[in-house]
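Appendix B. Raw example, untouched.
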Amino acid sequence: MSQKDIFCTFFCRKKAYVKRTSDVIHFLVDEIMRRKTYDIDMQKALDIIKAAPMHDLGKISIDNAILCKPGKLTDEEFAIMKTHASKSGEIVRFILEGVEQQHFADVYDALVSKRCYKEAMSFEQAFAIMNDCMGSQFDPAMRPVFIACKSKLEKYYTEANCK
């Protein structure tokens, strides 16, 4: 299988999920720009939005037995799965610095969306987890951005019928 075939297969399989994550990144970047949370210019903001679909490229390095497992992952499997964000960063580092930050939207999508291995969480549960992870898993400067986008995210996921 060629590299092009691998990428096409990956993105065709993940199209709806990638679109949702990209949309969430767009909401967050808009709010970051509005609040001036980070010192980024409009071009950098647009680059981040364009790079959002690449945030999961590292999953191509994860064994399909783990990636597509229908049940709960073991601690070891979960540790392997968590490496995909840094692997994505390695793959696209030459394109855009900071692609690993896309993981913020990926985590939210994973929490509020039904997956083959779990049911969707309520918005309240997901919000509590994301909020608790500010400062450890996520940059604490993202807290006010996330809070400001909360209703927009809930509306988006409700309308997209992703739950």
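End of appendix B.
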